[in-house]
Amino acid sequence: MATVREIYQLLNTLAPFSIQMEFDNAGFLVGRGDQAVDRILVSLDITEPVVSEAAERGAQLIVSHHPVLFHPARSITDGDPTGRILLALVERKIAAICAHTNLDTVAGGVNDALAHRLDLVQIEPLKQDGVDASGRPYGIGRIGNTVGAPMYAPAFAAFVKRQLGANGVRYVDARRPVRRVAVGGGACADLLSDALALGCDTFVTADVKYNGFLDAKALGINLIDAGHYPTEQVVVPVLAKWLSDAFPKVEVFATDRHKEAFSYG
Fold first, then answer.
1. What are the beta bridge partners of residue 98?
2. Do residues 119 and 207 share a domain?
3. Which of 20, 72, 75, 188 has most Cβ atoms within 10 angstroms of its Cβ?
4. Which InterPro entries would you find in this protein's record (predicted)?
C-alpha cells in the first residue's frame, strides 16, 4: 500500500517535474495526495476508456505520460471530452499523475526506452538542455549506433515499424547506410539539423511536417516518422517497472485498452 503523494515523490525523484518545459503541465493533476493506492494503471494517455478500465480493475491511480489537463479549464462539464474525463476521475475517486516532458528528457525515460527498443548501442544524448537540482544532466533525444550489417532506409523503416508495433511509417530514403541513428520520441523533427551535425545518417521521430521531409531529402539524411504513439508508448513498461520496483505491495498494470488512434489505408 502507498499513497498518491508517495508515488508522486518517487516519480519526482526519477523524473523531476521541475525540469518540465515551460509549455507543459506535468505533475499531480487530479485527486487527493493522502489517498491510499493498492492498484495503479499506467497508460500513455488518459482517455474515457482508460478511466473506465481503471475503475473496472479497481485502480485508485492512473500514471500517464501525456497530461490529462493541458490547457487552463474555464469549465468542467460533460459537454466536452476533457470535462467528461475529469468528471469520471473525480466521481470514481481515481487520481492522476502525468509525467510528460520531464520524462522525455531524463536518463532512462522516453528517449532511452526508444533507443533500446531499436537495439541501438553506445547511447548518448542528442541535446543537453540542462542539469536538475541533483546535478544530473537531462536533454531531449538520443543518439546510438546500430549493430550488425548496416541496413538501408527501406529495410530499417520496416524494422522500426515492427519493433514499435506501428500501423505504418513514413520515411525519406537518403540512400545512406543506417549506422548512426538519432531518436526523438514524439514531435522532435526540429532536431533534424542537430542530428546531422552530430554525424547521424538517420533520424527516427514522429509528427513530421511536409517541409521536414523536404529538408531531410535536401540534407541527405534518412528520416523516419514512426508516429507519436509508437515512439512514446515504449515508456509505459518503463514506468510500470519503476512503480513495481519501488512499491512491491502495489499491483501495477499497463492498459490493454488504449491503442493507436488511427490506421493507414
1. 27, 64
2. yes
3. 188
4. DUF34/NIF3, DUF34/NIF3_sf
Q: Is 251 annotated as contributing to ligand binding?
A: no
Residues 127 and 189 in one domain: yes
pLDDT digits (tens, 9 = 90+) for 170-208: 999 999 999 999 999 999 999 999 999 999 999 999 999
Query: Number of structural domains, the chain?
Result: 2
Same domain (yes/no): 87, 188: no
Q: What is the pLDDT of residue 1?
A: 84
Q: What is the CATH number of the domain that holds 68?
A: 3.40.1390.30
Residue 43: other Cβ atoms inside 10 A: 24
Known binder of ligand: residue 258?
Answer: no
Q: Are residues 81 and 19 in the same domain?
A: yes
Question: Mean pLDDT for the chain?
Answer: 96
If one counts every other C-beta atom within 10 angstroms of the C-beta of residue 180, the result is: 19
- Order across the sheet with 202-206: list the strands: 121-125, 142-145, 180-187, 202-206, 222-225, 170-172
Confirm or deny that 232 is annotated as ligand binding.
Answer: yes
Cα 159–Cα 160–Cα 162 angle in degrees, nearest 5: 65
Grid coordinates given for 161: 515499424
Last residue of a domain, one of 36, 65, 100: 100
In this structure, is residue 204 part of a structural domain?
yes
Closest CA to 85 of 25, 3, 30: 30
Q: Is 228 annotated as a binding residue?
A: yes
Residues in the chain: 265
